[in-house]
Amino acid sequence: MSAGVTRVVVDVMLKPEILDPQGQAVLNALPRLGVSGIVGVRQGKRFELELADGVALDGAVLARVEHLASTLLANPVIEDYVVRVEDASAAGA
Amino acid sequence: MSAGVTRVVVDVMLKPEILDPQGQAVLNALPRLGVSGIVGVRQGKRFELELADGVALDGAVLARVEHLASTLLANPVIEDYVVRVEDASAAGA
């Protein structure tokens, strides 16, 4: 995305006590790839929300995203989520 | 995860020029939820890799994770990935 775009990131991960078969599958594949030293893998989702031009990143917007995260992006019964603002200039790749 | 665990995070997102139907579905749902001000949504994957105790987080380990990311976690033809070390103490939720 171009510089100057304000991006809010929502990371959604299964709660630690919930079984994560996708992460387990990755973990099981590591020895076959000759990779050691990794004892746990969890797989989750990452959402990048791009705000419209002129929308200031204030508490109201973050509250809206927080509400979205808890109702649409994550299932709070089995998932934890974190909302954070990504510094667009820091995103290299 | 408990404090002191070293965690490496790999974020995998579809390249910007690749169509993202999951993100589009989320975007299309926003007006129905009464949310405005968001003009773009991209959905990707987040992997949390937990290193074994005593494995120092040096360049060799990061190179190994980088290799994993490009061969197992992401498809570099259509996806971008970012490898980063997460400060365990900073992870609140």
UniProtKB/TrEMBL annotation, chains A, B:
Q: Which GO terms describe its biological process?
A: 'de novo' IMP biosynthetic process
Where in the cell is the protein located? Answer: Cytoplasm
Question: Which InterPro entries does the UniProt record give?
Answer: PurS, PurS-like_sf
- Indicate the family of this protein: Belongs to the PurS family.
Give the matching HAMAP family.
Answer: PurS (MF_01926)
**What is the purpose of this protein?**
Part of the phosphoribosylformylglycinamidine synthase complex involved in the purines biosynthetic pathway. Catalyzes the ATP-dependent conversion of formylglycinamide ribonucleotide (FGAR) and glutamine to yield formylglycinamidine ribonucleotide (FGAM) and glutamate. The FGAM synthase complex is composed of three subunits. PurQ produces an ammonia molecule by converting glutamine to glutamate. PurL transfers the ammonia molecule to FGAR to form FGAM in an ATP-dependent manner.
Q: What is this protein called?
A: Phosphoribosylformylglycinamidine synthase subunit PurS
Name the encoding gene, please: purS
